[in-house]
Write a structure and sequence with these properties.
Blueprint (H helix, E strand, L loop, with lengths): L8 E3 L4 E3 L3 E3 L15 H12 L4 E3 L3 E2 L11 E2 L6 H11 L5 E7 L13 E3 L7 H4 L5 E3 L2 H21 L3 E6 L4 H6 L14 H4 L1 H14 L5 E6 L10 H10 L7 E5 L23 H8 L6 E4 L5 H9 L5 E4 L2 H4 L3 H6 L16 H4 L3 H15 L10 H12 L10
Parallel strand pairs: 3-4, 3-14, 4-7, 5-6, 5-7, 7-10, 8-9, 10-11, 11-12, 12-13, 13-14
Antiparallel strand pairs: 1-2
Helix pairs in contact: 1-2, 1-14, 2-4, 4-7, 14-15
GO molecular function: FMN binding; oxidoreductase activity
Protein name: 2,4-dienoyl-CoA reductase
Organism: Salimicrobium halophilum
Length: about 400
């Protein structure tokens, strides 16, 4: 029997009601057209996720400018030229009475070599040597450049609203541009945008202020943010709590908790021992709940219905975020709510070749293939061999598949 999972969540400031406590969290689909618009396959994928029963469905990265692409296949929404396709996407993604939010993002210096000549960042600090071969060299944003990025965030948010998305989520986690501003490891500016956390948080606060002023008081706005970067001289839990508390004045409706960056990818469950329970960031979320009135969603690591119910009952989170399990079965929320499923079993995606398996790149490729299948109207193949998956990717795309891909 479900109780907490099936309970609606009222976003009080906006009067919006999320019909249950499941959130389909963002995954990078890489399924945009050559001009970075939604494709029929992407639209069908989200129709399946809407039909799957989650109360809130969040898109993968939608970039705010075509000048800053995190990876091939990114969707970009920077003007109204393809708005009819975004309207079609919004209609499909909310067809089951669910909320459908667009995640809006700027990758900062996490831009793949070959797509752009250089990345934009708070400071011109390159990645560690082992990652520099993947990412373009960074250039520090000028003050004028910072304000231009803020303008683009609010423009994309307004276009999302016009297209029919029921809300937006600002991506401030995983080492993308806003996350870079928050981190003293990557932000070493000496002006009003750097230094103490009050200054490093200014960029996110100004993005939230601009987005709220553009979309109005009746439109839901969420933020995805790290609990910490889990790196030396990085963004800390104490700083994260300070930043989230400072966002209350902008009427933020939901905070999704994650953690790590692509230098330390704990958001995939690798390298973190922070939580002794299913969810990776639940202890932090329980601490955060004592400090803020903003509803919280925790994504990553939930694998049993019992664990989800316990997390909600204990008040550590208001929503259960699911990502990779929904790449294998889009109907998991519906099955859990109906009592048809108790445990989520994800396959171990390993080829046995250490150079390929290292860092989780094989997993990302395998799950991306599952999304492609669903988008084409096929069923996912949970038992598909990782070795065959690798061969398929090499045949279709060449060795370029071994470049960094997003989670």
């Amino acid at each position: 029997m479900t109780y907490y999972l099936s309970e609606p969540l009222l976003l009080e400031k906006r009067g919006a009601i999320v019909k249950n406590r499941f959130m389909k969290s963002a995954m990078s689909e890489g399924m945009a057209s050559e001009d970075h618009a939604p494709t029929e396959e992407l639209i069908h994928l989200y129709e399946r996720w809407a039909e799957g029963g989650a109360g809130l469905v969040v898109t993968g990265n939608v970039m705010i400018t075509g000048d800053a692409l995190g990876e091939p296949g990114n969707v970009v929404l920077e003007d109204a030229s393809d708005l009819h396709l975004f309207r079609k996407w919004a209609k499909a993604g909310k067809k089951n009475g669910n909320e459908f939010w667009m995640q809006i993002n700027h990758p900062g210096k996490q831009v793949v070599r070959g797509l752009v000549k250089e990345g934009h960042a708070p400071s011109a600090i390159p990645f560690s040597p082992d990652l520099q071969r993947f990412f373009a060299p960074p250039r520090a944003l000028t003050t004028a450049g910072i304000h231009e990025v803020i303008r683009r965030f609010k423009r994309t948010a307004l276009l999302a609203k016009e297209a029919g998305f029921t809300g937006v989520q600002i991506h401030a986690a995983h080492g993308y541009l806003i996350s870079q501003f928050l981190s003293p490891r990557h932000n070493q500016r000496t002006d009003e945008w750097g230094g103490p956390i009050e200054n490093r948080a200014r960029f996110l606060r100004e993005v939230c202020r601009a987005v709220r002023s553009e979309v109005g008081e009746d439109y839901p706005v969420g933020v995805k943010i790290n609990s910490a970067d889990f790196m030396k001289a990085g963004f800390t839990e104490e700083e994260s709590i300070y930043v989230i508390k400072s966002l209350e004045e902008f009427g933020i409706d939901l905070i999704e908790i994650s953690g790590g960056t692509y230098e330390k990818a704990v958001m995939t469950g690798k390298g973190t021992t922070e939580s002794k329970r299913e969810a990776y960031f639940l202890e932090y979320a329980e601490r955060l709940k004592k400090e803020t009135t903003i509803p919280i969603a925790v994504t990553g690591g939930f694998r049993t219905k019992e664990g989800m119910e316990q997390a909600l009952a204990a008040g550590g989170t208001d929503m259960i975020g699911l990502a990779r399990p929904l790449a294998v079965d889009p109907s998991i929320p519906d099955k859990l709510l109906k009592g048809e499923l108790e445990t989520l079993d994800l396959p171990a995606v390993k080829t046995g070749i250490p150079a390929i398996d290292k860092g989780g790149m094989m997993e990302i490729m395998w799950f991306s293939q599952q999304l492609d299948r669903i988008g084409k109207g096929q069923e996912a193949k949970p038992n598909f061999s990782p070795k065959l998956s690798l061969l398929k990717s090499l045949w279709e795309n060449g060795t370029g598949i071994l470049k960094k891909r997003r989670v």
